[in-house]
Amino acid sequence: MYRPIRTAGDGLKRAAPRWAREYRRGIVTDADVTQARDYCLNQLKHGDYEAYLIRQFVPRSAYDGYHALRTLNLELARLPETVSNPTIGRLRIQFWRDTIERIFAGNPPREPIAILLYSVIADLKARAGDGIASSIKFWLLRFLKTRERHLENRPFVSLAALEDYSENTYATLMYITLAFIPMQSIHMDHLASHIGKACGIVATLRGIPVLAAPSTLIRGPSGANLGNTRSPALLLPLDVMADADLKEEDVFRMGPNAEGLQDAVFQVATRANDHLITAREMLKNLRLGRGPDHDYEHEGEAEHVYSSAAHSVETADADIKRGFGVLLEAVAAGDYLKRLESANFDPFMVRKSWKLPWSLWYALKHEQI
Question: Are residues 183 and 312 in the same domain?
Fold first, then answer.
């Protein structure tokens, strides 16, 4: 029997296709996660090769979390160089702040990093409950806030300010990675704090040749000059530059020939190396069943309150074995500092590393950083 087709105007609504219903409900499929993972791996391979190498040794329970975190870090680190003014950068960071809220509300946007983070956090909640997940949210928002404060690429006021920045960015990324395992150990967080500070300082030194280079002109379709991508910047701490009698303008004009540059770089690199030495000594003492010879300066701060079990030296060796891959960030930082020293602390002359893959393998085999 013939039945006429009734349209929406006849009082019926056509059911939305399944993919549209899933999109509205925030459902993330296995295919979505696979595509998001592939996106992040590709970004790291071409934009942060050290992280791309280290990821292979991160515990499997933190594997995808590491991919998402490092890709997010890569995007935010590039913001000051890729936007024409800080306002655009702040809008992007606000997008990520809103995205974090949506991820923890169970409704992530269709963005690869967000999808992968959502998948990891949903799995973590199923394994360990909401407590650790709430710590991760706190650290992610702190990470975004710190990145936002430094969008304008201004020099750090002091070497201590650079350390604070590194604690709230690179060390915080390591705290989150440990939480993905999940692991709550004051000793592992203490190690991550020193290593993260070293990594943040190294990232600042590594960026000198890039940020101090002349800015690039932006041209429209007609060839008209639309302005510059950014202004040259030098992020070395002001107190260190004053001690070395180094002027920003000299670096912008003369590059590696600027008077005082190598002295300033040496002072900053020494602080990074001090953190690595401290971490290595701590690791050695914990392995021998002894506690660190100094207190963890961030104990008692938000999300750094530990149970008595988390203080245990007896379980420290087992924690180190379980989370050692996370500590390999120290190997990459140390590798750069060695190459910087070989270049007589001239950041413009540092050569690329071909030894890092072997160094990571050796460090993992011998559990040394």
Answer: yes
Is 183 exposed, middle or buried (CB count within 10 Å of its CB: 0-12, 13-18, 19+)? buried
pTM to 2 decimal places: 0.89
| Residue 12 counted as domain residue | no
For 92, counting Cβ atoms within 10 Å of its Cβ (0-12 exposed, 13-18 middle, 19+ buried), the class is middle
Largest CA distance in the chain: 94
Shared domain for 303 and 234, answered yes or no, is yes
ω into 182 cis (within 30 of 0): yes
Q: What is the pLDDT along the chain (369 residues), one digit of tens a residue?
A: 444 434 344 444 444 444 333 334 457 899 999 999 999 999 999 999 999 999 999 999 999 999 999 999 999 999 887 877 888 999 999 999 999 999 999 999 999 999 999 999 999 999 888 888 989 999 999 999 999 999 988 999 999 999 999 999 999 999 999 999 999 899 999 999 999 999 999 999 999 999 988 766 555 566 655 555 568 899 999 999 999 999 999 999 999 999 999 999 999 999 999 999 999 999 999 998 888 888 898 988 888 888 887 788 888 899 999 999 999 999 999 999 999 999 999 999 999 889 999 999 999 999 999
Examine the domain organization and report whether 187 and 315 are in the same domain: yes
Same domain? 214 vs 292 = yes
**Token reading at 126:** 């199923």
What b-and-e string marks burial along 6-42, b requiring 16 or more CB atoms within 10 Å of the CB? eeeeeeeeeeeeeeeeeeeeeebeeebbeebbebbee
End-to-end Cα distance, the chain: 79
Residue with tokens 């460090």: 363
**CA of residue 145 relative to chain centroid, distance:** 13
Residue where one domain finishes, among candidates 152, 182, 217? 152
Residue 32, domain extent: 21-152
Report strand pairing: 225-228 vs 217-219: antiparallel
